[in-house]
Amino acid sequence: MIIILTRNFVHHISKDALKSTCLLALVLFLSACQTTPLQPQLSKKDAINSTMAKVIIPVDDLDEVVDTPQEALVFNEIRYNSEAEPYLSAEAIVENITNNNSLGWSELDSEASTSTAADLLAEAYQNVDQNITLDITIEAIPEPIAKLDLWQLTVANYGLGRVENARIDKYYKWYNKHTEYMRRVTTRANRYYHFMLHEALDQSLPAEIALLPIIESGFDPFAYSSGRASGAWQFIPNTGLAFDLKQNWWYDGRRDIVASTNAAHKYLLMLHKMFDGDWLLAIASYNGGQGTVLKAIKRNRKAGKPTDFWSLDLPQETMNYVPKLLAVARVIAEQAGTDSLNSIADEAYFKSVSIGSQIDLAQAAEMANITTDEMYRLNPAFNQWATDPQGPHNLLIPIAHLETFKASLLDLPSSKRVAWERYKIVSGDSLLALANQYHVSVDLLRTINNIDGHMIRAGKTLMIPIASKDAAAYTLSAAQRVINRQQRITQTQAGQRIEYKIKSGDSLWKIAKKYKVSIAQIASWNKLGTKSVLQIGDQLNIWPRSSGNKLPAKTQRNVVKKLTYKVRSGDNLSAIAHRFSVTVNDIQKWNQSLKKYLQPGQQLSLFVNVTKLKQ
């Protein structure tokens, strides 16, 4: 098109008086065009004989150029290069015209100059090398790889290998069959697993280690065994202390998600080194103790037997512990990414926030705009209604509520994070009685009020920290968990709870026989081992059963329901207890904040067998 326009323009100006001026304008016009190299129209197949720097061919047309199947490519580019550049730009054409010595530029209006310019334009278009070899590269751009969820990421980082053993198969079948249990456990892990898995990977631990809380506690940080093991990683008191897990009235580090996970990893790494890099022996020792495993190895060596885990004679629980873990790992490997497991995104759920001082947990929950239950589940180490006044001074807060909590924390001075009461001591008061009354520890009262010893004087004033809400509001405090557990037991037992004080000569067998219950029941009710040594003066909770008061059938127990009763004018506890076939003691246990006198309109929680309601 440029050539045709140029020829026509040159032809018309040849007879004009302003020939030289117009021709100069033509030269400037062509120079200003700055066009890309002239490119003739090519068919798709002709493209391979072209010398353009790059050609994009649609996927649908690839089969006309190359033999690559269309289904195998997502996006495709055909690139080829040529060192030659046969097509001249308008700028280059002008430069050729300008530099051509055959033209006399003093004679711009001559027919010769016009003809020469047209010939140069035609020559530039026709001077194309059609036999240039192309270097064709076909690029296939794959679809983005889907992000792994935490269970898939776990499987991708397994380090124990696949072990074939009949002891594993037994538990593999159980976990594979109980899909609802696996889904429930993996749902409970939702808050904690991102932290636990990534901490394990950061320590270069096999990812299977992050699955140990499934075996230990089912990812329940409040789990407590008959052997006094506590938390998601089930540390017993002495082992917890050995790994700096603080334990007191306010706080139990064995249930602290961050502290206990770090302690478990530290312990396992120590065991791994102790057993010369054998992870199965290290894991067995985590359950049964390194002394137990070392003794078993020594026996086998003496008898000339192998000393690998599968060859050792260990306590039954430890013998089953490693196979359980390997069975769970196999099930998760098969079910990761399916509906059988609750999928957990590879995103942090919580972040630790430094609070700097003691804080009421119900108040902290309101500040973060979460429930008190959620606050306790993220911070299960705190036993009471507030954090430990001596620290640690940090809380785990959901990422989604982090900024809300931080903003509220900045607006709340330390002096207002816990409520206080000025109490005037009266005759007969004691630190122990006041500590029980206000749900605090004796040591705390002594520390806050600078008291040496246990003596207090009537007329003096004590500063006592108090909870901002009723005891029942602190849903998962240690005291509330005990109350809730006792209520559940009471609803399923025939007798009413009694508190038995252990005397000299007592044993679980004697006490069980006296109250016609089993040793296992007493151990379960009081979270003891069946072989635990009893201490004189300790107290046991027992639900006795007599021959005339047999345990009701399961169908009868299921009709117990929780009712909310609104106190009427003239009501008293005895009348209400009689009406609902419960005892006054039951009503008092179910309603911890109950005052001495009932008030009309007051609401009471009752657990009632509806089949025994009096008409």
Verbal overview:
The protein is mostly helical and about 625 residues long. The protein folds into four domains: about 1-140, no CATH class; about 150-335, Orthogonal Bundle (Lysozyme), CATH 1.10.530; about 350-475, Membrane-bound Lytic Murein Transglycosylase D, Chain A (Roll); about 555-615, LysM domain (Membrane-bound Lytic Murein Transglycosylase D, Chain A, Roll). Helices cover about 40% and strands about 10% of the residues. It contains 25 helices and eleven strands. It has helices spanning about 1-15, 20-35, 90-100, 110-125, 150-155, 165-175, 180-190, 195-200, 210-215, 235-240, 255-275, 280-290, 290-300, 315-335, 360-370, 370-380, 400-410, 430-440, 440-450, 480-490, 510-515, 520-525, 555, 575-580, 585-590, and strands at about 55, 75-80, 135-140, 350-355, 395-400, 420-425, 460-465, 500, 540, 560-565, 605-610. The strands form five sheets. The protein has a three-stranded antiparallel sheet, with no helix packed on it. Strands 4-5 form a two-stranded antiparallel sheet. A two-stranded antiparallel sheet has the order 6-7. The N and C termini lie far apart (about 105 Å). Residues about 15-20, about 35-45, about 45-85, about 105-110 and about 545-560 have low confidence and may be disordered.
Quick overview:
With 615 residues, the chain is mostly helical.
Rg of Cα set: 42 Å
Distance between the termini: 106 Å
Tell me the strand percentage band. 5-15%
> What multimeric state do the chains show?
single chain
**Secondary-structure content class:** mainly alpha
CATH class of the largest domain: Mainly Alpha
CATH architecture of the largest domain, please? Orthogonal Bundle
Number of helices: 25
What name does CATH use for the topology of the largest domain?
A: Lysozyme
Compute the average pLDDT. Answer: 78
Spans where pLDDT lies below 50 across 5 or more residues: 14-18, 34-45, 47-84, 103-109, 547-559
Overall tally of structural domains: 4
